[in-house]
Design brief:
The structure holds two protein chains of two kinds. By secondary structure, chain A is of the alpha/beta class. Chain A has four domains: about 40 residues; about 110 residues, Immunoglobulins (Immunoglobulin-like, Sandwich); about 50 residues, no CATH class; about 180 residues, 3-Layer(aba) Sandwich (Rossmann fold), CATH 3.40.50. Chain A contains nine helices and 20 strands. In chain A, the strands form five sheets. A six-stranded mixed beta sheet of chain A has the order 17-16-15-18-19-20, with helices on both faces. A five-stranded antiparallel beta sheet of chain A has the order 1-11-10-5-7, with no helix packed on it. In chain A, strands 2-4-8-6 form a four-stranded antiparallel beta sheet, with no helix packed on it. The model of chain A has no long low-confidence stretch (mean pLDDT about 85). The relative contact order of chain B is 0.09. Classes of the chains: A alpha/beta, B mainly alpha.
């Protein structure tokens, strides 16, 4: 860090020059005297010693947040030598608002003095927030010299999408081999009673159905349905997006995906994630809290990456997309490549549910309202309804979600047992 | 508060030429000086305040030429000190606008400014006093004496520039500056 003259020197030089010029021009000594304090200030501001080093400690109150949560940034300053004036500026990342305090401050420090500066940020939307540490600028007297430095104290705060409660997530058509919350059609160990059959060697006595035995004569046992879990793969469309930053259709879809992941993982299911976009990224299906964290961390970085390359679903390995899995595709259905991929998956026999996130609300929120906008939005809604009906006719299971109402309400249409459909 | 203080300093700056000659030509210059400088104080713009202060200086020079009073070092030093304080204050106010200020920041700054201005005033007073003493002596100076003095000044300026350019750079400074 070293002193550098500031733009204020130009003003001082200008006025000193004017005073001397007018003094010479008019032959008045008064005007030469006027220039003396200005020239003295310029000379006094020319500093030779190194600026006093300021020790900074940068801390955040939390490293993991939910959207709209607040984080307190605390900066502690300490100087061994007196500092006449030190300026601190913490640049605000995009989609972050200052909730309390200021992100720009000035302090005067005595030798050995410690000053604490804190401000509160509100994180409006999901992102990985990088707070790199404040810019530090030491000012010389009169502001004629300044020394700048950047305090490197990187802090990362993960702002996750909120997890809304989901009571009735779509039931998978097929179950897996591990214990879960779904009643499987297969007979075996479980608590849900199934058929009754004659006793066979090896049957446990506690399974004997005494009522049926008394009525029918020979011993009969009650069979039970197995309780199994399911594989659920969330497929997120990041090929296109509309809407204002932080409230795009991808952000809405990410919120839905996070809610679905939390709901299925709470039911002991294995949940995986495929980000189908310019970059094809995935999370292998798994279960437990660690898997939820993995899925949320991947969703945090989901974004639209432009590309002309169309990646086929064939690229996705079977261990990422098991054939027995329930595939929940969250998409605004704006890009034909995703529609083709979804149709392809359904044609291959995957249990596919498309949650069509409406882009109309996000787009309307991003533009100024008016008659033309309203008319365009209505026309777009009608076109979208026609598109969804067409896809339904082709055999896809589609849930229309406007992103405003809770996902649980949109998924209510799927509470009826679904049947496997054959694509037209 | 800082704007008010800057406004008072600007008013003082504009009032001094009017005190020397409260007549039409000076008034014509003082009014735009007050307008431009006042606008600069309002928006905390150092270039605008510099422009206003330059106009006030021209008004002061005009007043001195037209009225032709005796040399008044006190008024001249007051103008110089006011200019220093006005620029420093507007620059500081522009920087701290919208920022949090720690305790005693303004008090410490005012202390620093007053200290430098006091030293500047003392220097000006000393130079003025030296000029008063040396004036009669140099009144009969011949052309060679003036040339030698000018050459000495040019030599010192050149030496200063060379020292400035060849000064060792601080390796810790960003971009080697």
């Amino acid at each position: 860090m070293s002193w550098r003259p500031t733009a204020l020197n130009v003003s001082f030089l200008t006025l000193a020059g004017w005073a001397l010029f007018l003094g010479v021009l008019t032959g008045r000594a008064d005007l030469v005297v006027v220039a003396v304090p200005l020239i003295f200030a310029l000379v006094a501001a020319r500093r030779t010693g190194a600026p006093a080093a300021v020790q900074l400690h940068h801390d955040v109150s939390a490293e993991r947040l939910i959207e709209d949560d607040r984080v307190t940034v605390t900066v502690t300053l300490r100087a061994d030598r007196p500092v006449p004036l030190v300026e601190l500026l913490e640049p605000l990342p995009p989609r972050v608002r200052l909730e309390q305090g200021r992100n720009h401050a000035f302090f005067t420090l005595r030798a050995g003095e410690e000053v604490r500066w804190a401000f509160v940020l509100r994180c409006a939307s999901r992102q990985r927030l990088h707070l790199g540490g404040p810019h530090v600028r030491s000012w010389g007297p009169l502001g004629l010299a300044a020394a700048e430095a950047r305090s490197r104290a990187p802090q990362t705060v993960a702002v996750y999408p909120p997890l809304a409660p989901l009571r009735y997530p779509p039931r998978p058509l097929r179950t897996q081999t591990f214990v879960g919350n779904y009643v499987s059609p297969a007979q075996g160990e479980g608590i849900e009673p199934g058929d009754i059959r004659p006793f066979a060697p090896g049957d446990q006595v506690r399974h004997v159905n005494w009522r049926a035995t008394l009525r029918l004569g020979p011993l009969h046992v009650t069979q039970h349905h197995r309780e199994r879990n399911a594989d659920v793969v969330l497929m997120l469309d990041t090929l296109s997006e509309v809407g204002a930053p932080g409230a795009t259709v991808v952000d809405v879809a990410v919120r839905g995906a996070a809610t679905l992941a939390a709901a299925y993982l709470a039911r002991k299911d294995r949940v995986g994630l495929i980000e189908y976009g310019g970059q094809l990224r995935w999370v292998r299906p798994g279960s437990g809290r660690a898997q939820l964290q993995r899925v949320l961390d991947t969703l945090l970085d989901a974004s639209v990456v432009f590309t002309y390359v169309t990646r086929d679903v064939d690229l996705i390995p079977p261990r990422i997309l098991p054939t027995q899995a329930l595939v929940l595709a969250l998409s605004p259905l704006l890009d034909g490549r995703f529609v083709r991929a979804a149709t392809d998956l359904a044609a291959r026999g995957f249990d596919l549910v498309v949650i069509a996130v409406s882009p109309v609300a996000s787009a309307r929120a991003a533009v100024r309202g008016g008659r033309v906008t309203d008319l365009a939005a209505r026309l777009w809604s009608l076109e979208r309804r026609v598109q969804l009906d067409e896809l339904r006719r082709r055999g896809l299971t589609i849930v229309d979600w406007d992103g405003v109402q809770p996902l649980d309400v949109a998924l209510a249409t799927l509470r009826q047992p679904r049947r496997r459909r054959v694509l037209a | 508060m800082l704007r008010l203080a800057a406004g008072v300093l600007l008013a003082v700056l504009v009032a001094i030429p009017l005190a020397v000659l409260p007549a039409a030509p000076v008034t014509w210059l003082a009014m735009p000086a007050l307008g431009v400088g006042g606008a600069g104080v309002l928006v905390l713009s150092v270039p605008m305040v510099t422009t206003g202060a330059s106009l006030a200086l021209i008004a002061y020079a005009s007043a001195l030429v037209i009225a032709g009073p005796a040399v008044d070092p006190v008024a001249a030093i007051a103008v110089g000190a006011t200019l220093v304080l006005l620029l420093a204050l507007v620059h500081f106010a522009g920087r701290v606008q919208g920022a949090a200020l720690g305790p005693a920041v303004i008090a410490a700054q005012v202390r620093h400014w007053l200290m430098i201005v006091a030293l500047g005033v003392a220097t000006a007073a000393g130079l003025t006093a030296g000029g008063v003493v040396l004036g009669p002596t140099l009144r009969d100076a011949t052309l060679p004496v003036v040339v030698v003095a000018a050459a000495l000044g040019a030599l010192m300026t050149t030496a200063g520039v060379i020292a400035l350019v060849t000064a060792r750079k601080d390796p810790s400074a960003p971009n080697g500056r």
